[in-house]
Amino acid sequence: MNERKINEFDYNLIKIMNEVIVSGSLSRAADKLELSVSAVSLSINKLQRYIGVELFIRTAQGMKPTQTALDIHDSFSHAMCIIDDVVHKAKNHEKSVSTVRVMCSDLVESFYFQRLHQRDDLQETLFVFTNATLFNHDECVRNLLQSGNDIVLSNFPLNHSSITSVEIDSVDNFVVVCSDTSLLASQKAFTLSHYYTLPHAVYCHSEGQVKKLISVNNQHVPNNKSNMRKVVYNSSSLNGIIAAIERSDMIAIFPTKVAEYFIDKRHSKLATFSLPDDIHHETLKTYANFVTRTTKIRGINHIISSFKAVENCQ
User: Which of 10, 30, 111, 276 has its CA 20 to 30 A from that of 313?
Assistant: First the structure.
């Protein structure tokens, strides 16, 4: 592209294309840009003719960007991050506050980030959170690359050429929690009979997903009780799960350090029991995922190092 073509090129076409990628459809992009659908369509066609390659494929799920469109989107997003940071620093020259957009589960926000701020870590960082229940790999990638998030914290690494994944925690110690006023709290130990008899509150996962994390040796339990755990409360709100347990005879399985944090620091009215040997919970890992070329790499590295420092102190 020579200098004359650069001067003649309308960069608004890139902005329009980018909005179609983020929105997923011409109509939603048109609403966001306050343009007509036909104007958005004409702009996309004009950009395609200029570049000489197809940028979108129409599917039943909406407008699917081609790899060329995604490559342009990646470069455009990177450039806009640089511009936004420069403008922000210019407007707030007296005190620079870094803004980081985080997509994570309610547990990550309530447990990991709260402890960072209690230690006065990252006090000069403004976090903007988007909570999410368990989502699949491709959804995580889309939310990181196309939805303006700076970092996505998930229980699996994101495999993508433009994304770096760093393991920040690995949990293999779990306990059963119940209300400290329940009948179970007065017992000496938690048994398989309790596991199948008492109602369960489940955080985030569906019943099918939990079975992938928890395995039970049922040989000591009558067959009519096998695989009959009673899930009566399912929520993506950690505080909602805890409140429900405190006010009922429900039980839940939590990472040990999460249960101890809510009991010791948040004064939750809970009691804990070790899991019986017949119940096994798979190791739960947490990963920090971010765009490798992000302009906020210094702030993201600070977040990751702070996470690791807190976990190593446990």
Answer: 276
Q: Where in the chain is the domain with CATH 3.40.190.10?
A: 97-168+286-312, 174-282
Rounded to whole angstroms, the Cα distance separating 84 from 74 reads 15
Query: In 3D, which of 73, 59, 85, 60 has the Cα closest to residue 19?
Result: 73
One-letter identity of residue 235: S
Q: Which amino acid is located at 111 in the chain?
A: F
Q: What is the pLDDT of residues 257-307, one digit of tens each?
A: 999 999 998 999 999 999 998 988 888 889 999 988 887 887 788 888 888
In CATH, which superfamily holds the domain spanning 174-282?
Periplasmic binding protein-like II (3.40.190.10)
Residue 33: how many other CB atoms lie within 10 Å: 17
Whole-angstrom distance, CA of residue 29 vs CA of residue 36: 9
* Neighbour tally for 135: CB within 10 Å: 14
Cα(183)–Cα(186) distance, rounded to whole angstroms? 6
Q: Please tell me the CATH code under which domain 97-168+286-312 is placed.
A: 3.40.190.10
Q: Which CATH class is domain 3-72?
A: mainly alpha
Contact 138, 109 (CB under 8 A): no
162/141 Cα distance (integer angstroms): 10
Average pLDDT (108-118) is 79
Mention every residue, 6+ apart, whose C-beta is less than 8 A from residue 249. Answer: 178, 179, 182, 183, 184, 198, 199
91 φ, ψ (degrees, to nearest 5): -80, -25
Question: Nearest-CA neighbor of 257 among 153, 173, 179, 154?
Answer: 173
pLDDT cut 70: percent of the chain above it: 80
Bridge partners, 101 (sequence order) = 128
| CATH 1.10.10.10 residue spans of the chain | 3-72
Say what the pTM is. Answer: 0.67
